[in-house]
Amino acid sequence: MLGNGATNVVFPLTVAALAVATMIGDGACSFVSISLGRRDQESAHRTVGNAVVLALGSGLVLAAVYLAARDPILRLFGATESNYAYAWDYFTWISLGIPFYMFGQTMNPIIRSDGSPQFAMISTLAGAVANVILDPIAIFVLGWGVKGAAIATVAGQIITAGLALWYLGRMKAVRLRRGSFPLRASLMGKFIPLGFCSFLSQISLVIAMATTNNMLRLYGGQSIYGEDIPLTVLGIVMKVFQIVISIVIGMAAGCIPVVGFNFGARRFERVRELMWKLLSAEAVLGVISFVLVEAFPRQLIGLFGSESQLYEQFAVLTFRIYLCMIVLACVNKASFIFLQSLGKPIQSTFLSLFREVILAVPLVVLLPRAFGLMGVLYSMPVSDVAAFFASVWIVLQTDRQLKKAIAAEKAKT
User: Fold this and answer.
1) DSSP 178
2) Is the pLDDT at 1 greater than 70, yes or no?
3) Residue 23: in which H helix or E strand, if any?
4) Reduced to 3 DSSP states, what percent helix, strand and coil does the chain have, rounded to the nearest 5?
5) Which of 9, 328, 348, 380 has the largest count of CB atoms under 10 Å?
6) How far apart are CA 61 and CA 116, in angstroms?
7) Bigger pLDDT: 303 vs 367
8) Average pLDDT of every residue of the chain
9) How far apart are CA 252 and CA 246, in angstroms?
């Protein structure tokens, strides 16, 4: 149990690294797709080169910061006296893998924008499969425990990064050259804002998770469950949730190059059709996920090991309450990403901040004052419902704009 609690403490710090990587990668992906749609090869290859340099540089800087400030960071993100030693070991090895992780995550959307979504998927799966295989070997056979889990994770990240590096020399639509890599402020000013929503979406999640972890410690310590059970259980529930959201992001991010290309080529009818198909597919995924978390919470928590009766009791409550609006969460996340692919960073950023910071953080602080530990669990569905109404409003506005653009293009012909 303490090992799972430790990974929950460290998880937001991995998400912080992902925030920077997706800002660079998704922004580059969107801008490269738009550039290719406009037949602007010069901007396309320079964008990819600049993204490579930014990913490598920011990965090294973030790893150095993490390693230099381990103790205050772990305390800030909710480490307890019981799980601190586990969190220290896990965080140390995860920090060493941050440069590989960020490079692989940055390159993934760029590879998709180059017209190779299958390779992007294979490179990610290769790292994930290696992690799954190495995990039990490192944890049980070698007896490394939570440190072994971290080493297996880093090994998978190195494989994904290596495959991405191999692909860079074999790109199809974009050809890299020596002049691609010098950083250009004017160019970064064009593609980084397109990925800023991805950054805020992830970094706001870090803020929300750090706040949630500390609320779990505070109100869990005042309940029959204690500090460690709520912290561990919510970490597991968030892992399951992240699997679902990763699929949501994968589906939405897979649309970015297609949307960007067609938007750049002024084929607005295709863009509108894809928007509604994507949101419908995400809703279906959300319904399937809802059935699983509501009907089989014991089976899901059992995948991560069995503990006391109190542990199981809180796990069932957490799955059923915390994720009861997972359908809306799926649609919300897809809306954020789709707006980003249309070159609408302001709307996309607003929705992301509204959900994760304006709603989630105050709610996770205020609701426990009225409902105790259960208030922490209520904060997630309440945030999802409010964010859904905001998403619907902006998506309908976008649909009207696309309809006008379609009519204008037809009038020209």
Assistant:
1) G
2) no
3) helix 2-37
4) 85, 0, 15
5) 9
6) 30
7) 367
8) 85
9) 10
Task: Please state, in angstroms and rounded to a whole number, the distance separating the CA atoms of residues 189 and 183.
Answer: 11
Q: Where are the beta strands (DSSP E) in 187-312?
A: none
Among 167, 175, 168, 172, which residue's Cα sits nearest to residue 41?
A: 175
Structure tokens at 176: 């890299």
- Indicate if the alpha-carbon torsion angle 17, 20, 26, 29 is positive or negative: negative
Tokens of 366: 């205020």
Q: How far apart are the first and last CA of the chain?
A: 65
What single-letter amino acid sits at 327? V
**CB under 8 Å to 264, separation ≥6 — which residues?**
33, 34, 35, 36, 37, 38
Q: Closest by alpha carbon to 97, among 164, 14, 4? A: 14
Distance, in Å, from the CA atom of 313 to the CA atom of 269, rounded to the nearest integer, reads: 50
Do the Cβ atoms of 269 and 303 come closer than 8 Å? no
Interior/surface letters 345-354, b for 16+ CB within 10 angstroms, e for the rest: bebbbbbbbb
User: How much of the chain, in percent, has pLDDT values that exceed 70?
Assistant: 97
Containing 25, the helix (H) or strand (E) segment is helix 2-37
Q: Which of 41, 35, 110, 40 is nearest to 343 (CA)?
A: 35
Is pLDDT at 3 greater than 70 in this prediction? no
Which residue is listed with tokens 């998978």?
156
- Name the pLDDT band for 413 (thresholds 50, 70, 90): low
**How far are the Cα atoms of 49, 174, 264, 292, 375 from residue 180, in angstroms, in the given order?**
5, 10, 22, 47, 51
Residue 389 exposed, middle or buried by CB count within 10 Å (0-12, 13-18, 19+): exposed
- Torsion sign across C-alpha atoms 23, 25, 27, 30: negative
Alpha helices in 323-372 (DSSP H): 326-341, 345-353, 360-371
Nearest to 120 by CA among 166, 155, 88: 166
Q: Rounded to whole angstroms, how far apart are CA atoms 58 and 66?
A: 12
**Closest Cα partner for 155 from 97, 211, 104?**
97
Q: What is the mean pLDDT of residues 115-139?
A: 88
3-state secondary structure of 18: helix
Q: What pTM did the predictor assign?
A: 0.74
Residues 77 and 73: their CA atoms lie apart, in Å, by 6
